[in-house]
Amino acid sequence: MRRLLRLIPPGTLAVGAGLAVLGLASYVHLAVAGHSLTQADYNSLSVLWAIVFTLGIGVFMPVEQEMARVVAARRSEGLPPGPVLARGAAIAAGMFAVMAVVLLAAYRVLADKLFAGDGRMIWVLLGALAAMAIAYPTRGVLSGLQLFPWYGSQLGIDGGLRIAMVAGLGLAGVTSPLWYGAVLVLAPLVGVLLTLPPVLRAIGGGTPVAWTALLRGLGLLTASSLLSQVVVNVGVINVKLLDPSDVATAGALLSALVLVRIPLFVFASLQASLLPGLATSAATGDLRGFHSLLRRALGIVTALGVLGALGAVALGPWLVGILFDASDVLGYGDFAWLSVSTLAYLWAMVLGQALLALDRHRSQAFGWTIGVAALVAVTLTPVSVALRVELAYAVGSVAVAATMALLLRNHSRTAPTPTRPLDDAVATGVPGGTR
Q: Keyword Transmembrane helix, does the record have it (predicted)?
């Protein structure tokens, strides 16, 4: 345990506190919305939520990670982060522009299929994605400069505002899903605004950064990140697509997923020390230390997953009704499948970090590709909709973990020797994927 604590970089506690507030905000947000909205409106909000975090985290978190890597490398040479911010912001803006064009081109189809014809939800979706396109590049600068208290403050402000805003909406008796969706637009933007001073003070000038410095690993990271979010979030969207008339299951499934994925929030704080520790062992050829830390991490997430599963299966059907006012459509068996899926997903996350530490970005992306393919195959089977999406989540997560375990076994039989410098590998270990 002492060795693990030594691997934790400075500021991890501050980031963990911000993550805790942001995680709590997700529960409060959905709980207030669940008690304030009709089943149909909560269904629309659930689909919006799933799309925002599938696309937003999947696309913009890799931008944050690559910016953090380059900013950290420049910081070690005494160079300012301004040119990195300019390039990173341009990349994020370009990605958002592509998504906006696609969403607007399919405006009417998406509104009819996903939001019961309410096109205004598409504009809320675009606003939430734009906010994430702004927030993640600034977090990349903060983490690359090791301004972790400010990083954690941005997460905490975002989460705190979500709690305050949805509480106000609930007390005011607001019953429109648009306003509950708009919280995902306003809160992160205010968080960026209030934590912008240290970014502006540090920008500086200097020669422009080559596009290749950020783009060389971004494609594979984005593929892995986006596919991982598809595995964990697409079930809610699939319920809506497979059975549009079922206005209860999508909302109940999102509420259940929020409960069973509590261990994922804990892992997000552990991730800050896991990848740097694995990368350090890999870069120094410490095969025994690499495997020891990997086994320890797998043991920790297994314990988290099992404990979370016991609580979710025993109390889940009751809690989703009490906390989120969800319909009584999911039973103990549903929570068991979702809990098994989450445990396998945790294994996949840890094994993916190990592959990244070995500079095996293609292997990680391949593992997630196999998982999504398995998920799609199960989704097309002729069983009940709820069971179908639960089995798809489980099979997809297990497929990812199994594929990565096999790839990792082949890659790590000899002393790990990544091709990227140690500073590059360690810098990508900042936490991301928060909600």
A: yes
- Enumerate long-range contacts of 288-297, CB under 8 Å, 24 or more apart: 290/354, 290/357, 290/412, 290/416, 291/412, 293/4, 293/7, 294/350, 294/354, 296/4, 297/270, 297/350, 297/353
Nearest-angstrom CA–CA distance, 354 and 406:
12
* Amino acid code (one letter) for 274: L
Q: How many Cα atoms within 13 Å fall on the side-chain side of residue 405? A: 13
Lookup: tokens for 272: 């800050």
- Distance between CA 67 and CA 145 in Å, rounded? 10
Can you tell me the distance from the alpha carbon of 398 to that of 416, in angstroms, rounded to the nearest whole number? 25
CB burial readout 346-362, b (16+ within 10 A) else e: bbbbbbbbbbbbbbbbe
Q: Are 11 and 423 in contact (CB under 8 A)?
A: no
Sequence-ordered list of residues with C-beta below 8 angstroms from that of 435, at least 6 positions apart, any chain: 22, 23, 25, 26, 53, 57
Can you tell me the distance from the alpha carbon of 180 to that of 164, in angstroms, rounded to the nearest whole number? 12
pTM beyond cutoff 0.90: no
Distance separating alpha carbons of residues 35 and 30, to the nearest angstrom: 9
> Rounded to an integer, what distance in angstroms lies between the CA atom of residue 406 and that of residue 400?
10
Tens-digit pLDDT string for the chain (435 aa): 455 445 454 556 778 888 889 989 999 999 999 999 999 999 999 999 999 999 999 999 999 988 888 888 888 788 888 899 999 999 999 999 999 999 999 999 999 999 989 999 999 999 999 999 999 999 999 988 888 899 999 999 999 999 999 999 999 999 999 999 999 999 999 999 999 999 988 887 777 788 888 888 888 889 999 999 999 999 989 888 888 888 888 888 988 998 898 888 777 767 656 776 787 777 778 888 888 889 988 998 999 999 999 999 999 999 998 988 888 889 999 999 999 999 999 999 999 988 888 888 899 999 999 999 999 999 999 888 889 999 999 999 999 999 999 999 887 565 455 444 444 444 444 343 445
HEC sequence for 45-61? HHHHHHHHHHHHHHHHH
| DSSP assignments along 80-123, one per residue | -SHHHHHHHHHHHHHHHHHHHHHHHHTHHHHHHHHSTT-THHHH
What are the sequence ranges of the domains in the chain? 2-427
What does the block give as tokens for 381? 């089977």
- Residues 135/159, Cβ–Cβ less than 8 Å: no
Question: Do residues 105 and 31 make contact, with C-beta atoms less than 8 angstroms apart?
Answer: no
